[in-house]
Specification:
Blueprint (H helix, E strand, L loop, with lengths): L2 E5 L2 E4 L4 E8 L6 E8 L6 E7 L5 E2 L7 E6 L4 E6 L8 E9 L7 H8 L6 E2 L3 E6 L1
Parallel strand pairs: 2-11
Antiparallel strand pairs: 1-3, 3-8, 4-5, 4-9, 5-6, 7-8, 9-10, 9-11
C-alpha cells in the first residue's frame, strides 16, 4: 500500500517561497502519476501540479511560472517549489498518487483536471499560509 507523508508547509509573506516535500513508500508499480492538490477553507480540493514517472510536469494556470513540481526517484520524494506566493495560495496542500494506466502524453494532467476522486492515495496534508 502506498504511503505519502508531506512536510515543508508554514507561514510566509506574499512574494516569499516555500518548498513542500512528499515522501513516498510502498509503491510496487513503475508507472504512476504524482500530484499536488490544495484545499482552502470552504472550497473544493483542487489540483495544482502533476508529474509522471515519465514525461514533463504539468500545472494549472493559476500557478504556472511560480510553482515547480519535481520527482526524485532515487530519494522517492516528490517536491513542490513555490515561489512568488500570493495570499490566495493559502490552503492545506496534499500529495496524491495514482497508477498510470496509459503512457500517452497528457494522461496525468487529464487525471489532475478530472479531480481528486481520480487519485487513490493521499498524504495527511501540510498547511501553507501566505500573508499580505
Amino acid at each position: 500500500q502506498v504511503q505519502l507523508v508531506e512536510s515543508g508547509g508554514g507561514s510566509v509573506q506574499a512574494g516569499g517561497s516555500l518548498r513542500l516535500s512528499c515522501s513516498v513508500s510502498g509503491y510496487n508499480g513503475n508507472n504512476y502519476c504524482m500530484a499536488w492538490f490544495r484545499q482552502a477553507p470552504g472550497k473544493e480540493r483542487e489540483g495544482v501540479a502533476v508529474v509522471g514517472n515519465i514525461g514533463t510536469p504539468s500545472y494549472v494556470d493559476s500557478v504556472k511560472g511560480r510553482f515547480t513540481v519535481s520527482l526524485d526517484n532515487a530519494k522517492k520524494t516528490l517536491y513542490l517549489q513555490m515561489n512568488s506566493l500570493k495570499p490566495e495560495d493559502t490552503a492545506m496542500y496534499y500529495c496524491a498518487s495514482e497508477r498510470r494506466l496509459l503512457m500517452m502524453a497528457g494522461y496525468c494532467y487529464t487525471l489532475l483536471l478530472q479531480g481528486a476522486n481520480r487519485f487513490g492515495s493521499w498524504g495527511q496534508g501540510t498547511q501553507v499560509t501566505v500573508s499580505s
